[in-house]
Amino acid sequence: MRYLPLTQPDREAMLAVIGAKTIDDLFVDVPALAQLDGPIHGLPMHASELSVERHMTKLAKKNLAAGDAPFFLGCGAYRHHVPASVDHLIQRGEFLTAYTPYQPEIAQGTLQMLFEFQTQVARLLGTDVANASMYDGSTACWEAIGMARRITKRGKAILSEGLHPHYVSVAKTMAKYTGDELVTSIPVLTALAPADDTDQLLGAIDRDTSCVVVQYPNILGHIRDFSELAAACHHQGALLIVVVTEPVALGLIKSPGEMDADIVVGEGQSIGVGLQFGGPYVGLMGCKEKYIRQMPGRFCGETVDAEGKRGFVLTLSTREQHIRREKATSNICTNSGLCALAFSIHMTLLGEAGLRALAATNHASAVAAAERLSQVPGVQLVNDSFFNEFTLKLSKEARPVVRALADNGILAGVSLGRLYPGVDALENGLVVAVTETTTAEDVETLAAALQEALA
Amino acid sequence: MSINQSGWRPTSPETGVESGGTFTGNRGLMLEEPLIFEIGSTETTGVEVAEPAKVASNLGGLARNAPIGLPGLSEPETVRHYTRLSRQNYAIDLGLFPLGSCTMKHNPRLNEKMARLPGFADIHPLQPVDTVQGALEVINELAVWLITLTGMHGVAMTPKAGAHGELCGILCIKAALEAKGEGHRKVILVPESAHGTNPATAAFAGYSVEDIPATAEGRVDLEALKTRLGPDVAGVMITNPNTCGLFERDMKAISDAVHAAGGYVYCDGANFNAIVGRVRPGDLGIDAMHINLHKTFSTPHGGGGPGSGPVVLSEALSPYGPLPFTERHADGHITLVEEETVGDRHPHSFGRMCAFHGQMGMFTRALTYILSHGADGLRQVAEDSVLNANYILRSLEDTLDAPFAHSGPCMHEAIFSDDGLPGDFSTIDIAKGLIDEGYHPMTMYFPLVVHGAMLVEPTETESKAALDQFIGALRSVAQRAKAGDESLKSAPHFAPRRRLDETLAARKPVLVWKDPELAQAAE
Amino acid sequence: MRYFTEDHEWVDIDGDIGTVGITDYAQGQLGDIVFVDVPEEGKTVSKGDEAAVVESVKAASDVYSPVSGTVIEGNADLADNPGLVNEDADGDGWFFKLTLSDPSELEDLMDEAKYEAFVTKL
């Protein structure tokens, strides 16, 4: 078998050294009732690389890839162009097959990369510090709520209506075990101001509130200034948590840190990490300096070695499970190392100028697309502001329209019926994302198809 | 004849006078590399972005005007920067990686190729399910393999890592107890040798954690456990094989006792590599077990992640598993059960653990690996991993203290202690000495139940020659320690960095780069 | 008069005020201290309660209050200089001061001679 280097003579020689007759002697501690006498029935035997490739390729072909269709889906995962070098570099064996850098002398590659990543993320989010990544945006969001609970010693978290419903669902699930009270609501499909719940949030903050959680841009694509909300939170001793699911936006719009957010979390997938049907992704998490010790996840820090050379190590480890065990800030063990590397490499290739240009292109394409699509009879643009994602109100229920267009090879966006099933007030909503990978022809194709579907 | 005009007169090499060092700080192929903030600039970019159309901006007045501080590099500089960084890392691709409990096996490149097929890599999680049937089939096929290999009833595929899977399992247990009116049970029992994620997970779920002692033979003390079980115990978290590399012989009796007392058994599956294809944990009575795809099923460690931790569940716990999950219908069509249909299809689910559907990229890799090995190959994986570990144990037990070597074979990992090392020498000196020999050290100081623990897991993808070389290296370092070789105390000497000051890093944390010019100006 | 616990805390008594620290033996066992979490003024503690946490790079240890009382001051110097505990555990590296609520608890503690004998047996 191609991944097993031992030969039969090797095995026999080793058994002789061990003093065992057969391999079964080494499984003597397994009770007889649990020993299987041969390969498990009903499962196929080993297969060549060629036949495995055939099998997997057949399955891959049963999926409609985003690159093979006009594609407009967003809502927490975005299709951006990742330069070819990124994928080559992350596949270098010294990155791909390395371990967590617990032995820093021989892991400076990973550690320096993480230090650069932390700095890039902190600057992008506008926070003092950032950690070495979380599993994804949704778990980072939940962890931020936990952090707010520990810092304020309060149990009521107010979640904005603009927060991704999967993120809300995760928070609701986890809050059952921590006793946090969650105040939640769902968005409204209106083109009129106020188009979101900033005013309700301002009114709801009180001395029992641990945090207010908002998404920026929000699930419908709206962009709001949270400075007033941050001040209102701080006035009551609560924290403002801002969630960013599309980090490319931060190349064009003010960072949450600049609006005085206390904790900023995000989904880094847009930068360096492809769609991959939902994972693995990379959670971003940053906060103000004073809250560092309450952050979950890993930290990489700068130091020197015995010869005075600059080097990097994992640090502040006493927050973590392998030391603090039941008193840890979280049970997290892994970060999303390889995805953080991909993010960092892509961000380095972009640089600030490239990120700004990329963001500008996204926005310009989205503005043009929104204008073209709102010309279609039966289509109304909901947003007064957006980055690269906006919501359309159709004259019909959106979900069947999306399905019909998919049958015709067009991936038209995410219907609000998919995200908020059973909410009649939202069922005509369609969230459309436009990136640098979307062409004008794609937009025309979508416009024509929508026109037909809504006739 | 004509005289050599180039000026170069080759002669035989001599070692000659020693070098006084270099201008660059480099040493031949060992290259120093600055930070991107020191070599890049905010105006440089390695991509070309199309000129954006001139449109009226619609950003709600929130344009980002202040400088961000993100340096860019051209493509050649970027490739060079990260290539140089990569060369400062040890990796499985370079040599044996003996980390106990981590299963650092070869990461097959076919996995990477399959994961990158556009039909898997370039699909969005919210696409209509009819457009992603192949992806849902991968999830389903992998799920069937995991259930069959473990002899369990159901599987939760979405947890994003092992620790996330532990949480999933514990929350299923909690939900099951509450459904039976047994929600008052507040205690989880965990062996002292357990991985830190176990008690951290139990505490998060609201349980208080109590230790189960170990016997002199390194296994769970069944009698002590039975004495402690009672109506306040929700369950136990057992690692099997355990963190000392030993099979818990009493596992069935442990499960029976816990069930009889009204609790559930969570099994930490980190060490599944020792028994995959030879033993089904379901036959030993467990109720939930997470599987680390990045350990047993070869998905890459990537310098610290991403992982993937699906959780197999017993019939008793399956109803409580988190959404979303896949459902195959009679006509072969596969749907996703999410919040919308969970009320009908899976009403007792405890909820959602993360956005979207789990680590799809790891599912394609793991399934590729599993199909390559097949049922016979996986069985051979377990056998070779156990053979390799026992070979190391018996080869070194004369040099290093092996606390359980007398009580029988180990499984896929061998444990040594610092007993027998001279007073001021410790496990860390052995570990750092091993770095100079060209290896990543074994797991150190874990589990806590063995003093100065050294946990060695070679895995099955090491040849006999590789094992022999490793054994020779570890024996040499251990003998140097016993002989009092002081140079070990300042090892490593030959790695890209000497020992690093972790105290300084913790006392004065520097977690982001600060421009030294700005820092000086501020002072 | 200084009293000691078997968990290597000491308490200096001056009237009804106690100053609590950890012993030199303890700091040697812990290695370089990187962070100390001292209790806040006003916190009430019972004998044996976790009152502070002392962290080295690879471990976090709880410090238990040797006596019951109310905290009047945590050592603010330890925030910037946790290494003080290593340098002078018996003096400047003190952790917190408290007013004793039950001086009779001191009877169960060891004096210096007994503590030293206790340590040699470890």
Keywords:
heterotrimer, A: 455 residues, alpha/beta, Aspartate Aminotransferase, domain 1, Aspartate Aminotransferase, domain 2, 3 domains, seven-stranded mixed beta sheet, four-stranded antiparallel beta sheet, 14 helices, 13% strand, C: 122 residues, alpha+beta, OB fold (Dihydrolipoamide Acetyltransferase, E2P), six-stranded antiparallel beta sheet, three-stranded antiparallel beta sheet, 4 helices, 9 strands, 37% strand, globular
Helix content of chain A: 25-40%
Helix and strand pattern of chain A: HHHHHEHEHEHEHEEEEEHHEEHEHEH
Q: By helix and strand content of chain C, what is the structural category?
A: alpha+beta
What's the number of extended β-strand segments of chain A?
13
**Which radius of gyration of chain C do the C-alpha atoms yield?**
13 Å
CATH superfamily grouping of chain C: RNA polymerase II/Efflux pump adaptor protein, barrel-sandwich hybrid domain
The CATH architecture of the largest domain in chain A comes to: 3-Layer(aba) Sandwich
Strand order of the largest sheet of chain C: 1-2-3-9-8-5
H/E series of chain C: EEEHEEEEEHHEH
Sheet with the most strands, sense and barrel status of chain A = 7 strands, mixed
Low-confidence stretches of chain A: none
As laid out across the biggest beta sheet of chain A, the strand order is 1-7-6-5-4-2-3
Number of helices of chain C: 4
* Global structural class of chain A: alpha/beta
Architecture per CATH nomenclature, i.e. the level-2 architecture of chain C: Beta Barrel
Query: Strand-residue fraction of chain A?
Result: 5-15%
User: Structurally, how many domains make up the residues of chain A?
Assistant: 3
Q: Outline of chain C, from the CA principal axes?
A: globular
